[in-house]
Amino acid sequence: MGTTPRVRAPELRGRQWLNTGGRELKLSDLRGKIVIADFWTFCCINCLHVLDELRPLEEKYGDVLVVIGVHSPKFEHEKDPDALAAAVERYGVHHPVLDDPELDMWQQYAARAWPTLSVIDPEGYVVATMAGEGHAEGLARLVDDLIATHEAKGTLHRGDGPYVPPAEPQTTLRFPGKAVLLESGNLLVSDSARHSLAELAPDGETLVRRIGTGSRGRVDGPAGAATFSEPQGLCLLPAHTAEVAGYDLVVADTVNHLLRGVRLADGEVVTIAGTGRQWRSTVDDHSHDALSVDLSSPWDLAWYDDKVVIAMAGIHQLWWFDPVKRTAGMYAGTTVEALRDGPLAEAWMAQPSGLSVSTDGARLWVADSETSAIRYVENDVMGTVVGQGLFDFGHVDGPAAEALLQHPLGVCALPDGSVLIADTYNGAVRRFDPESNRVSTVAEGLAEPSDLVLTPAGEVLVVESAAHRLTRLAPGALSAAGASTVDGPRHRTERKPTDVAAGEVTLDVIFTPAPGQKLDETYGPSTRLVVSASPPELLLEGAGTGTELSRRLVVDGTVAGGVLQVTAQAATCDADVEHAACHLTRQDWGVPVRVVEGAAARLPLVLRGLDDA
């Protein structure tokens, strides 16, 4: 793997271990195994993608491979040990997890992005580090190489790993995500951790029926045989559209990267959009056959502008789907993860996760979770009413321009023009009033509220996800007298900034194809680099899109610092084999930088690192 000195993996230390039966693991306990340390945080959609990519590797190499999740939080709420334990269950994490609340391990392993993977060989040396997602193929090849090498040396020990599953809880719902009110008065809930839809009686508690077996999968068919994978958003179609389409309800089948249609009369499930592959392509504004296009973690749905709009959390965009024409395409956003308003094709979002349409149908409200923002679409333009950026969050009420949220996942437009917000990581319901342009707190002490439903009688039901239930807000909570004003904590994610020099700086994205792969230029340039800055004034030159992975930037010395947004991708294919498979590796970075005289004039980022660490 090269001639540079091998690096001994730093010891694993943290606040607590999960999924080990109470055992505290040391690297010496893992000697003889191949270890992947997955540095993740549970708010991050890219981290959730990596969990899904690792599952088949854990299954295939179960007797030689141990994955250790190192949870290095971004948001304040993610430092809560109970919230982490809930997330480990919610997302089906079936490997040991080390709680790293102060990012000590993150720093020792020199992680710079969520997610980062460090591969440790059976002798305890770091042999590879890679940032971002899309590494399953490369990891499989690397694991095969390490197996061959260490079996020959006698340093590979086969056998069971240290994972100990927690007890299976018994509740009707398990981490419900979204809900809709049916004509019958019943409620339909996406029961995400149980991979199914639960229909509840109007009391919000009594189970009427379940659509889906409850096991993770992607099988179409009758209610008792169909399967989903962590479904989230639900959208009822208008009656005429439903009649033509042949189904009444659209489901965002999030981890399957699909949309599913459900006929409510009998619970029949059919796939209506997506291939099941995760989107790793280039932005276009074309209409596509819905079953031929790749999606990426669709999280919520709304009927707006005579189509289904999709909160495509995985690539920081909104998409559209037409159930009659059976077509789909991009609606808003560029895939850059940041906050910028403007024409829909130029707007930036960050993991949009909640949608709601105003009573008059004119405005689409968007919960943009990673920027802790409430955005809206109206007249082909995106605007922001609350939120300041990727790294600013808290629980602060008052004038909307100064208010702070913490990773909201849901919104609910009210008839008076205001909007309720499921302020998930603050455990609160908030209200934005456009008349006064102020934010207030309606309810607190909730367990990760993720959606809100307004009944015809004016009641508000909260999907209290981490409490595994629906909760009714107290009568009068929505009145001016019922709301309160919180001047709570203000937080800013403090990742250590990278010092860069004023003037010319060379940005180098270092890409090493996985073993057995080569760059693929069959369909044009194999690489693509998109650079922007927040604030934009940080870069005098160098912003924009190009095909080279090296870029000359000119940094304005009068700007103290900011965030460089970098998106890089590289197309590869298998080398020297018949029927070669093609792969696309892609990574987004938000790099905090500080402009310092005499600092480095080169900024290296690793798209895929399979060299010696």
Over the alpha carbons, how many angstroms does the gyration radius reach? 24 Å
Mean pLDDT value: 90
Task: Indicate the proportion of strand residues.
Answer: 35-45%
Order of strands, widest sheet = 1-7-6-3-4-5-2
Large-scale geometry? globular
Tell me the total number of β-strands. 45
Low-confidence stretches: 609-613
* Span between termini: 10 Å
What is the makeup of the main sheet? Answer: 7 strands, mixed
Helix-strand category: mainly beta
How many H/I helices?
Answer: 5
The percent of residues in helical segments reads under 10%
NHL repeats: 405-435
Domain Thioredoxin: 1-148
InterPro entries: 6-blade_b-propeller_TolB-like (IPR011042), NHL2_NHL_rpt_dom (IPR045302), NHL_repeat (IPR001258), Thioredoxin-like_fold (IPR012336), Thioredoxin-like_sf (IPR036249), Thioredoxin_domain (IPR013766)
Pfam families: NHL (PF01436), Thioredoxin_8 (PF13905)
Provide a compact summary of the structure:
With 613 residues, the chain is mainly β.
What attributes does this structure have?
mainly beta, seven-stranded mixed sheet, 613 residues, globular, 45 strands, NHL_repeat, six-stranded mixed sheet
Annotate the secondary structure layout.
Blueprint: E1 7-8, E2 16-18, E3 34-40, H1 45-60, E4 65-71, H2 81-90, E5 97-99, H3 104-108, E6 116-120, E7 125-131, H4 136-153, E8 176-181, E9 187-191, E10 196-200, E11 207-211, E12 234-236, H5 239-245, E13 249-253, E14 258-263, E15 268-273, E16 288-289, E17 298-304, E18 307-312, E19 317-322, E20 327-332, E21 342-343, E22 352-357, E23 364-368, E24 373-378, E25 381-386, E26 392-396, E27 398-399, E28 410-413, E29 419-423, E30 428-433, E31 438-443, E32 449-454, E33 460-464, E34 469-472, E35 487-492, E36 498-500, E37 503-511, E38 517-519, E39 527-534, E40 539-541, E41 544-546, E42 550-555, E43 561-574, E44 582-595, E45 602-608
Parallel strand pairs: 3-4, 4-5, 36-44, 37-45
Antiparallel strand pairs: 1-7, 2-5, 3-6, 6-7, 8-9, 9-10, 10-11, 12-13, 13-14, 14-15, 16-20, 17-18, 18-19, 19-20, 21-25, 22-23, 23-24, 24-25, 26-35, 27-31, 28-29, 29-30, 30-31, 32-33, 33-34, 37-42, 38-43, 39-41, 39-43, 40-42, 43-44
